Amino acid sequence: xxxxxxxxxxxxxxxxxxxxxxxxxxxxxxxxxxxxxxxxxxxxxxxxxxxxxxxxxxxxxxxxxxxxxxxxxxxxxxxxxxxxxxxxxxxxxxxxxxxxxxxxxxxxxxxxxxxxxxxxxxxxxxxxxxxxxxxxxxxxxxxxxxxxxxxxxxxxxxxxxxxxxxxxxxxxxxxxxxxxxxxxxxxxxxxxxxxxxxxxxxxxxxxxxxxxxxxxxxxxxxxxxxxxxxxxxxxxxxxxxxxxxxxxxxxxxxxxxxxxxxxxxxxxxxxxxxxxxxxxxxxxxxxxxxxxxxxxxxxxxxxxxxxxxxxxxxxxxxxxxxxxxxxxxxxxxxxxxxxxxxxxxxxxxxx
Length: 351
Fold this sequence. Notes:
The protein is α/β, with parallel strands linked by helices. The protein has three domains: 2-53, 434 Repressor (Amino-terminal Domain) (Orthogonal Bundle), CATH 1.10.260; 58-154 and 290-318, 3-Layer(aba) Sandwich (Rossmann fold), CATH 3.40.50.2300; 157-288 and 322-350, Response regulator (Rossmann fold, 3-Layer(aba) Sandwich), CATH 3.40.50.2300. 46% of the residues lie in helices and 16% in strands. It contains 14 helices and twelve strands. The strands form two sheets. Strands 2-1-3-4-5-11 form a six-stranded parallel beta sheet, with helices on both faces. The radius of gyration is 26 Å and the shape is elongated.
């Protein structure tokens, strides 16, 4: 700004007033400053703009993830949000650490972010209640129990579970496992995990299916161990639904047990990866448009920050099952537990 002041022949404070609009400046002075800005091809730095306007032009995205490990679909959410913020000249601040509600509101109160996007939402989420009570702008990728006045984008998780069960029932499967999210997420009240469990345990018996509820993190090692125990202890189970990337460990356990997919075991992923069709076999699942969801959540918040939002926008993505190669008719013969499976399950259970 010093160069602009020198070129325009005005005080530095005058340049600041023209840029921020905080004080009136004579038309003559304003024209001189604007002419100097054009001659110097000046573009205000984001931090300088924040000081001048009281806005940081930054959005904070909170995605708590154990040990800061992000699975590819979470990275895709972030990429979508980044596209929206960049297009609107906002920066995106990402936090993968577990953050308490007070720390989140302090981030906005201190001017480090203008608004917040929350992910991994809980049924009764204290972060949401704290932001709402403070009156700070926010949007959700996910849902909570009380959505009054809240803009969010989420997948119809219950519909996804029900659609997956119905497809397996049509194929003749009478015993199906659900690989739900990690047990600590269920205990915390993670909305998607609660919906998945409740719909699965309610709807499966109505379809003539015996449900087996399994909890596992999305880490391949954990899912492999859980799947190996399932295959050893439940020989009547002929299909499984995963709530996310547990399918990587499950497919590995099926290979280790010499079980062919889909001839001897069918697999459905509620949140299918974008490259599901490139797997071997191609994965049947509900494709969750993560990039679009991240972009939409950021756009909702930006519209709120810029005054374009006149009412909360609530977008629930319908569950559309894409049938590929990983599902087939239930095998006729009951599967027996082999010595190899028992040894592997015992080994994994002891670790």
